[in-house]
Amino acid sequence: MTKRCNRCECHKSHSEFLINPRTDDGLYKLCKKCIAWLQRKRGPRRKYQTRITSIDECPPLPQEDGLRIIHCVGLPGIAADSNGEIWSCRNRGWTPVVWRKLSRRATNADGYVTSMFAVGTGSDIKSIKFATLVCEAFHGARPDGMQVCHTDGTRTHDWPSNLYWGTPIQNSQDRIRHGRNHGVDPELVNTAKLTWETALWIRSQQGLTNRHDLALQFGVTPSTIAAVWYNRTWKTA
Ligand SMILES: [Zn+2]
C-alpha cells in the first residue's frame, strides 16, 4: 500500500505518513519528510499570548515624530497618545504582540468615542471613553466627582489640550456654550442657570449691555451670553 504525498508528489508506504484521525484514510496528506521540512520553514512556534497583566509584559511603545504615548494606569497593554488616539498591545492567541491603534469608529449614544476594555484580572469588560483614557494619561487621575470635559464642546476631539477634568456643571456648560444640546430643551438641563425668560431678556439686551456685565448678573460665562445673543443656544429660529 502506497500513498501519494501532496507536496513532493512521491508515492510512499503508509508508514511514511503520520496518523491524522481527521482525514478519510487516517493519515496526513504530506509525508513525514515534507512535514518536517514545513516545520523547519515555519520556524519556532510563537508563544500563546494571554492577558497582559503588567506594563513590563508590553513591547516597547511605538516611536513617532512629535507623538507622545503614555501607558494607561490600571489598564496594562493600553496607551494614550498626544493626538487623542488609543493604542493596544492586548493581542490574544497566536497573533504577535504588537501595538496598534484602536478604531475610533464606535461612539456611544452620547457621541463619545468609546471601546470595550477588559478591566481587572477577571472577565469584567467595561466601555470606557477614549477621552477618559487620554485625560487620565496626560492630566492625572480623575478627581472625585469630576467628569472628562471637551473644551471645544466636540465630544470626538480627544486630544489632551482639548480635555480637562471638570464638574458635571462645567461639562453641561460646555455643551450649552457650544449649542450641542441636541433636541433637548436647555431649560430642562438640571444644571441650567438660565430660563427661557432670562435667555430671551438677555437676547433683548444685545447691543445695549456689555456681555461681561450680563454674565456676572446671571452667574454664567461671557461666552454663554454671546451664545444666547447669536442664537447658538436657546434657539428661537
Ligand atoms: Zn512528501
Describe the structure.
This protein is of the alpha+beta class and 237 residues long. It has three domains: 2-42, no CATH class; 46-133, no CATH class; 185-237, no CATH class. It is built from six helices and twelve strands. The chain has helices at 32-42, 130-139, 168-177, 196-204, 211-218, 222-229, and strands at 2-4, 11-13, 17-19, 27-31, 69-71, 78-81, 86-88, 100-101, 114-118, 125-129, 147-150, 163-166. The strands form five sheets. The protein has a four-stranded antiparallel β-sheet, with helices on one face. The chain has a two-stranded antiparallel sheet with strand order 1-2. A two-stranded antiparallel ribbon has the order 3-4. A hairpin with a 6-residue loop joins strand 5 and strand 6 (78-81). Helix 5 crosses helix 6. The chain is elongated, with a radius of gyration of 30 Å. The N and C termini lie far apart (89 Å). The model has no long low-confidence stretch (mean pLDDT 86).
Task: Please outline the helices and strands.
Blueprint: E1 2-4, E2 11-13, E3 17-19, E4 27-31, H1 32-42, E5 69-71, E6 78-81, E7 86-88, E8 100-101, E9 114-118, E10 125-129, H2 130-139, E11 147-150, E12 163-166, H3 168-177, H4 196-204, H5 211-218, H6 222-229
Antiparallel strand pairs: 1-2, 3-4, 5-6, 6-7, 7-8, 9-10, 11-12
Helix pairs in contact: 5-6
The structure holds zinc ion.
Distinct ligand kinds: zinc ion
N-to-C SSE string, H for helix and E for strand: EEEEHEEEEEEHEEHHHH
Determine the N-to-C terminus distance: 89 Å
Average pLDDT level: 86
The unreliable regions are none
Number of strands: 12
Structural class: alpha+beta
Q: Cα-atom Rg, whole angstroms?
A: 30 Å
Oligomer classification: single chain
Strand order of the largest sheet: 5-6-7-8
How many separate domains make up the residues?
3
Helix content: 10-25%
